[in-house]
Amino acid sequence: MLQRPKPTDSEADLLREQEHFLTSGAPSAANVVRRPDKRRGEAGEAERDSGETGGSQRDVVTIEDLPDQLPSLTPAPPKKSRFKAGRVTFEDEDAEERLDRSDTHISAVLSKIVERDTSSAPISLPAFTGTAFPKVLHRSETNNQVRGPNVFSSLVLFFFLALLLCSIEPPAVSGPTLVSGQGLGGSDSSGETMRIHKENQAKLQAMSQSEILEEQQKLLSQLDPGLVEFVRSRKAQSVPSAASPSKHAEDKITFAPLCVCVYESEEDLPVKPQKEWVHMDKLEPEKLEWMRDLPAPRRKGTKKAMQARFDFTGSLIAPTEDLPTHLGLHHHGEEPERAGYSLKELFLLSRSQIIQQRNLALSTLANILSKARAGEYLSVLKGNMVSSLLDAGLVFLLRFALDDSVEGVMSAAVHTLKALLVSAEDEECLDCTFSWFRGLASFPLLPTAQEEEDEEDEGLDESLKETAKEKEERKSDHDVARQDVIKGLLKMKLLPRLRYILEVVRPSPRVVQDVLEILTRIARHSSSSATQVLDCPRLMETVMSEFLPTSWSPLASLPPLSIYGLPLASAVKLLRVLATSGRHACARLLNSLGVRERLSCLLSAEPSELLLEPTEALRITTEAYRLWAVSAGYGQACKLYISQGDECPPPPPVSWGHVTGLQAALLGHLKGFLKSLDNPVQKDSSLTVIPAYLVYLEAYYHQLSRQVLLPASYLILVSVCIRIVVKPCFMEVVVKSSSVVCNLQQSSHLGPETTPNLPGLACSGWRNRPGLVVPSSPFPLLTGLGLLVETITGIHKGLSKKVGLVEEVSYHMHITYVPTEPEVAKHASLYHQVALVLLPWLLPGSEYLAHELLSTIIFSKDFISEGHSGGPEAVELGELKLHEETQQHTSPSLQTVGALLREACVQLPSIRGCFLTHLAHLESSVLVSRDAILGHNPWIKSHLLPELTGPILPLDWPFLPLVSLYERTGVSDGGGLAVEELPQGSLQAVTHCLQWLLLLEVWREDTIKAVLPVAKLARLSCVFLCSSDLFLERPVQKLTWGLFRLGSRLDSLDLNEPPPGLASFQDLYSALLAQYEAVSFGDRLFGCWVLLPLQRRYSATMRLAVFGEHVGMLRSLGVTLAQLSIPIERFTSPPEDSLPVLRLYFRSLVTGTLKFSWCPVLYVVALSHVNSFIFSQDAAAQEVEIARHSMLRKIYYLTDEVLLSLFPLLVFLSSICL
User: Which residue range or ranges hold the RPAP1 C-terminal domain (predicted)?
Assistant: First the structure.
C-alpha cells in the first residue's frame, strides 16, 4: 500500500516511493490535461505548432468532479454599496475618467505626495567638547528619549517635561495635571501615574537650578515645538486666575503665550466687559483688540495709484475720507482703516456662504456697473471699469449666481446682469428716434473686434477650413464670452434659466422687468440671437400668457404686488424688437403666438380703458402702435380692421378715395404745432410730433402724384402746403436751429465706458448735451421737410421758385436734385462739396443713397461749374505766371495741367462708369437699401440694418480703382508681379482714376483733405507697383506728373506716420526701390517719386536704404534739378547728422559709385553734406571726430581729378593734418 510522504523522508526515500508508484500502475489522483491556448488559435493548431517547433508545454492540473465554472450563489443577496446611492453620475460621463478619479493604485497615491516645508523645523547639532572623541552615550542617560512604542517611558518623559516647563519648584498639587493615565492598559493605571509623578518630583528636587535649566534647554531642542506649546497651554489653564502668589513666586520661570496683549489696567481695554454679558466671564485680550477704534485714514506717501473702494451705492470713496463705522463699510481685512469695498472683496463676498453677503455684494456690483456705463468713473479711475470686471470673470460669476437657490440672491444677480447688458439711456434714445424717417431701423449691437485666423487653418484650402459655426462650437465658454458677451451667455444656457425664473420662481415685479429688458437687449444683438429667443422652449409662451393676457382684472393696489396676469409695456417692446429682426420672426409672432389678436385689442381701446395705471397704459398703447408700424413695414398686419374680398399681395392698395379730404385736417394740426414752437414749454413735444406729420403729408402728396387723373385744384393744394408748412418749417430749421446742427463738437461731456465685446450706442447723457438726438434737435424736422419738398417739386418743377430751396434731404441729409434754375445753379459747387463730404459718412443700410449720389451729383458736370466757366484756363494762366516768376526750365507736363483738367471734364461720364463698375459688388446691398428707403414693404426682409463695420466707402475712395488693380496684379510677398500682364481695361481705369484725382486736387482740395498726405502718396505709388510698364504709358505719365507737382509741395507730408493699411512707409519704399532697379529704365517720373522721401526732414533709414542696399540704382537715377520741381534746399538743409549716412555719402563719392552725370541731384546732396561735415566747427563726440579725420586722410590719397577739383582746400588741410 502506498504511503504519503513524511516530513522526515529524505530525497532518496522520495525517489524510491515514486518508482514504486510508477511500477504499481495505480491511478493518479490528478491528471495532466493539455488545453488549447485561446490566444494562439484552436487546439489542433496549438498542438501542431508546439509539436513542430518543439516548444515548451504547459501542464494544467485538473481535479475530478470539479466544474469548469464556479457555481452561482443564487441564494445569497446581491451586494449593495451604501455609498453608491449618494454618488452623482451623468449619462454622458466617461467611465474611464470616473475610474481615473477613483483610482487608488500606488501610482495615484504617490502622485499626490506633497513635500513638507522644513524650513522652520528645529535642527539640533552635536555640542562641541574638548575631547578627541565624542562622549559615549549610556543607557542611563537616555531615559528622556522616546524609544519605540513604550508607553511607560513616554509617560515618564511627558511628566518630566511638564515639570520642567512649569517651574523649578514642583507645584503643591496631589497629582499630575496634564495626563490622567487612562490610556494605560493595567488595572492600577492611576497608581502607576502617581508613582511616576512622585519619581519625577523627587528627581527635580535633587537637581540644582542650573541643572534644571540645562536639562530644559536640551529637551526643548529635541522635542517637537507643537508638543511644547501644548504643554504650555495646558499648564496655563490649570493655574487658577485668582490664586494667591506663593512665597517662591520670584523663583518661578513662566512662558507667556505669543502675541498676547497685556493691559496695565481696565481703562486700557477697548471695552469693559460686564458680568451680565454671556461668555464674557473670561478675559481674552486678543479678541478685544478687534473692538478698538480704527486709526484715521491717511493718504499713503506714494504717487502710485491706490486701490478703488466703493460704498453700497456704487459711489467712489476718496482715500482720505473718514466715514463712521456704523455704515458697514469697514468689514474687510485689507486696509481696515479705509471705508468701502474693493472689486476683489466684492467678488469674494458674492461667493460667500452667508446669504446677506452675497446679496449685498451683487447689489453693489450692479450700482457700480450702472455708474460705469454712465461714464462717472472716467475722470477719477485709471482704466476701463467694465472691461476690468469682464476680464475678472463677472459674466461667469453672474451666471453662477443665477442658479442660486435663494430667491433674493437670484434677484440680485438678475439686476446686476441687467446693469451689465442694458443701457437705459440707449433704449430711451432709440425710442425717441422711432418716429423719425426710417426710425424703426436699427443696427445690430455686434462686437467690433475682428477674430484672428486660426493657425491651424493657415495654408489650407478653403474647402478644408472650418466654418464659422464649427469654430464657434469648438470654442470654450470663456473664449466665446471674451469675444462676445451675449454669445457667451447664450452658450451658457442663459435663456432656459430666464424662462425658469419667469415660469417657476415667479419673482417680484422689478425682477420681471429686468428679465424682459435683458431679453430685449439679447434680441438687439443680432437676428440669430432673436431667433434663439423665439426658439427657447416655453419662453415666449410664458411671456405671452403671463404679461400679455387677453383679459385681466382691475388693479387692487398701486403699485401692484405682482404683475403676473397684467399686460406690460416692456413685454410689448420685446415683441417689437423681435419683429424688427426679420419678417419671418414677425410672422411667427403674429400667427403662432397670438400677437395679432392681442394687438387689435390694445389698439382698439383708449389708454384710460385698459384698467391699468395711467402712465403704464399710455406706454402700452404707444408700444402697440410701434409694433403695428414694424409689422406694417413688412406688409403684415395690414388687415386688422378691414375686410377685403379680393386677395392681393400685401399691403392692400390705397386709392385716392381713401385719402381725399385728409389734407385739411393735417394742415390744421400742423399749423397749430408750428405756432407752439415759440412756446419753450411746448417746443420739445412739438418738434417730436411735427416730423411725423410731415412724413405723413409727404405720403399724401406722393399718392396724389401717382393718380392718373389729377384734381383740377391740385396745384392750389400744393401751394397752400408750401405757404403754411414748408416755409415756417424751413425758417425754424435754418434760422433758429442752425447752431445746434453746426456746433456738434463743442460738447465736453465724457462718453460712457464701452467695451469691444459688449458694444452700445454711447448715448449716456444725450438729453443734456448738444447733438442731433436731443429732444430739441431739428434733424427729424429737417428730414421730414426734405422728403416733403422733394415730393412737391416732383409734382411740378415750377414750384421750386416758391420753395426757395430745392434739395432732397433724406435720412443722411443727401442732396439729389439737379439744379435747373439760375438762382439755384449758382450754388452748384457748394452742393457738390457737400455731397463729397457726405459720401464717405454713409453707413451700411444707405447703399442706395450712396449710389444715387455717385450717379447724379458726384460726377455731374452741372455741379462742377469750374469745368465750363473758365476753370482750366485759369489754371493755365496761373502756371504761366509761376513760370515767369521762377525763370526755370520745368518739365513740359507742368504746363499742361489745364488741358488735363479740360479732358477730365469731358470724360466725367466715363469716370462715373469706371467707379460704379468697381462698386458693382455692392449691387445686392443697393437693392435691399432701395426697398427700405423707398418703402417697398413686401420686399423688405428685415428692419435690422447690416452689421456696422464702418462707412460704406472709405475716406480714400477716389483711389479705389488704383488700389483694386494693385491688389490683383501688384507685387507679391515673395517679390515680382503677381501676373504677367494687366487685365483688359486696366489702362483706361487707371487713367480715369488719375483724372478724377487731379480734378479733386485742383478744384475740391478741401474735400480731399480728409485723406492723409502719406496715404495719398502710398496710393499713388501703386501706379509704379501694379505693372512693369504701366507708368510708362503717355496718359498715365501726364496725369502722374501733374499730381506729383501738386503733392510734392505738401509741407504736411509726414512719412513717419504709417499709411492706413500698411505697417510702415519704409516697407512700401523698399518695394519702390526694388521695382525701380528692376523695371524703371531710368524713367524721370519714377526717379522723382523715389527722390521725394529722401528730403532731409524725413527719416534717415530711407537714405540708408538707397546708399546701402540699393546703391546700384544711383547709376540710372538721372533726374535733373529742373525736373525735380522740389527746392534743393529741402535735401541739403539742415546738415546731415547721421554718421552712417555720411559715411555712405563719402564712400559713394570716393569710389565713383555716385557721379554727377549719373545722378545729379544726389551727387549735389552728398557733396554738400560731406563738405558741411568736414568743415563743421561744432563740438562733437569722439567717434565723430575720428570719422572726420578718417575722411581727411582718405581725401589726401584721391586720384579722381573731378573730386580733386572739388576738394582742393580739403586736400591742403589733409596734408597739414598728416
Answer: 307-372
Query: How many whole angstroms separate alpha carbon 1032 and alpha carbon 1028?
Result: 9
Name every residue whose Cβ is closer than 8 Å to that of residue 1161 and which is 6 or more positions away in sequence. 1091, 1117, 1119, 1120, 1121, 1124, 1128, 1131
Three-class secondary structure assignment of 898-924:
HHHHHHHHHCHHHHHHHHHHHCHHHHH
Cell numbers linked to 471: 469654430
CA within 13 Å, CB half, 415: 22
Pairwise CA distance, residues 605 & 1153, whole Å: 94
What contacts 1110, CB < 8 A, 6 or more positions away? 1073, 1074, 1076, 1077
Supply φ then ψ for residue 859, to 5 degrees.
-105, 25
Check if the beta carbon of residue 875 is closer than 8 Å to that of residue 895. no
Most confident of 37-51, 167-181, 289-303: 289-303
- What is the rounded average pLDDT of the residues 749-778? 73
Report the SS3 class of residue 610. Answer: coil
Alpha-carbon distance 1002 to 149, whole Å? Answer: 106
CA distances from 949 to 449, 810, 954 (A): 10, 22, 11
Give how far Cα 450 sits from Cα of 35, 446, 447, 1120, Å. 70, 11, 8, 48
1145 vs 1158: CA distance, rounded Å? 15
Rounded distance between C-alpha atoms, residue 631 and residue 642, angstroms: 16
Q: Which of 80-84, 749-753, 812-816, 1014-1018 has the lowest mean pLDDT?
A: 812-816
pLDDT at 328: 81
* Cβ atoms within 10 Å, residue 161: 21
Res. 70: pLDDT tops 60: no
Averaged pLDDT, 804-822 = 44
What is the average per-residue pLDDT within 653-666?
Answer: 73
Question: How would you class 1081 by CB atoms within 10 Å of its CB: exposed for 0-12, middle for 13-18, buried for 19 or more?
Answer: exposed
What is the distance between the alpha carbons of residues 829 and 1004, in angstroms, rounded to a whole number?
A: 9
What's the whole-number mean pLDDT along residues 963-979? Answer: 68
Match 485561446 to its residue by C-alpha cell.
Answer: 38
User: Residues 1094, 1131: contact at Cβ < 8 Å?
Assistant: yes
What is residue 485's predicted lDDT score, i.e. its pLDDT?
95
Instruction: State pLDDT tens for residues 207-260.
Output: 888 888 888 777 777 777 777 777 777 666 655 444 444 434 333 333 333 344
Summary count for the chain: helices (H), strands (E)? 56, 2
Across the range 927-948, mean pLDDT stands at: 90
Could you write out the DSSP letters of every residue in 180-219? Answer: --TT--STTHHHHHHHHHHHHHHHHHTS-HHHHHHHHHHH
Grid cell listed for 627: 409694433
DSSP secondary structure letters along 768-817: GS-SSSSTT-SHHHHHHHHHHHHHHHHH-GGGHHHHS------TT----P
Rounded CA separation 90/1204 (Å): 94
Q: Which amino acid is at 619?
A: R
Among the listed residues 344, 382, 378, 388, the one whose alpha carbon sits nearest the alpha carbon of residue 364: 344
900 with 991: CB under 8 angstroms? Answer: no
Question: For residues 396 and 392, what is the distance between their CA atoms, to the nearest angstrom?
Answer: 9
Mean pLDDT of the chain: 77
Stated as kind and residue range, the H or E segment containing 62 is strand 61-62
Amino acid present at 765: G
* Residue 316, helix vs strand vs coil: strand
pLDDT of residue 921: 92
Q: Rounded to 5, what percent of the chain is helix, strand, coil?
A: 55, 0, 45
Residue 276: predicted pLDDT: 76
Nearest-Å Rg of the Cα atoms of the chain is 48
- Assign 297 a pLDDT band (cuts: 50, 70, 90): low
Q: What pTM did the predictor assign?
A: 0.72
| 634 contacts 583 by C-beta, under 8 angstroms | yes
